[in-house]
Design goal:
The protein is an all-alpha fold. The chain contains eight helices and no strands.
């Protein structure tokens, strides 16, 4: 199998968790506290993957300067986009309650869709870039993205249902985001193939910086909204679970 196709397959697998989570969130009424617990766990898993997979590998490839510059650039870019989308009604796109309807905030549906795309693309680029040089995709990274995507799709779809959005809109959105995840993984592999190590390190760190800001701006606050003081404990459990997986894989 061509490696670009393999990259797309892994990206699609990770993105499919959004559709699975959305199906559960839209069709089944799950207590919001349970959703918050899963989101906190997913945040911890994703933090661990960023720390021990993305930044560690970026530093090994290109050194401290490209890693630091890439991380700051990713954080700034994500923050700017997130601020713009928040003003359009996508601030609580991961919350199972409190999302605005189109009647309350015109254009909020589009903003939520773009926000979901903004959240998912950096993760998928990293999955594709992990195959460069003939290596194997990081099981920890794919698992981290998959686990974090389940509560994201679940919570967001529940909120969309409460805001009055149709099933066609919800499932169409998350299916499109899953497909975009596959394309982003292919792009991460094909566009960075043959690039200097310093550039690959910078791009990986850029994605890592964006993911960290996404966790801090959206996942943790939305988890804390319903899990409260248990959020930190559950996040640590997720972090340690991913760390243990990375050590076993190593």
């Amino acid at each position: 199998m061509p490696q670009w196709l393999e990259a797309g397959g892994w990206g699609l697998l990770a993105g499919s968790a959004l559709v699975a989570g959305a199906a559960v969130g839209y069709l089944v009424r799950i207590p919001q506290r349970v959703v918050a617990w899963v989101m906190a766990f997913g945040a911890g898993v994703l933090m661990s993957a960023v720390s021990f997979e993305l930044f560690a590998e970026a530093h090994e490839r290109g050194g401290l300067a490209p890693t630091a510059l890439g991380a700051v650039a990713g954080a700034l870019a994500y923050t700017a986009c997130d601020l713009a989308l928040a003003r359009r009604g996508a601030r609580h796109r991961k919350r199972s309650g409190g999302q605005p309807s189109e009647a309350e905030a015109a254009g909020s549906g589009t903003a939520i869709a773009l926000g979901a795309l903004l959240d998912g693309v950096p993760e998928s680029i990293v999955i594709g870039a992990g195959l460069l040089g003939g290596g194997a995709v990081s099981a920890v990274t794919v698992a981290a993205v998959f686990v974090s995507n389940v509560p994201e799709g679940l919570s967001s779809a529940a909120g969309m249902r409460r805001a009055g959005r149709s099933a066609g809109y919800v499932f169409g959105l998350w299916t499109a985001i899953a497909a975009a995840s596959a394309l982003a993984a292919v792009a991460g592999y094909t566009m960075l193939g043959g690039a200097p190590d310093a550039l690959i390190a910078g791009i990986s760190a850029l994605a890592g910086g964006a993911i960290l800001v996404m966790i801090a701006n959206t996942m943790v606050p939305e988890a804390y909204h319903d899990a409260h003081q248990l959020t930190g404990l559950i996040t640590v459990v997720g972090f340690l679970a991913a760390f243990a997986l990375s050590q076993l894989g190593g």
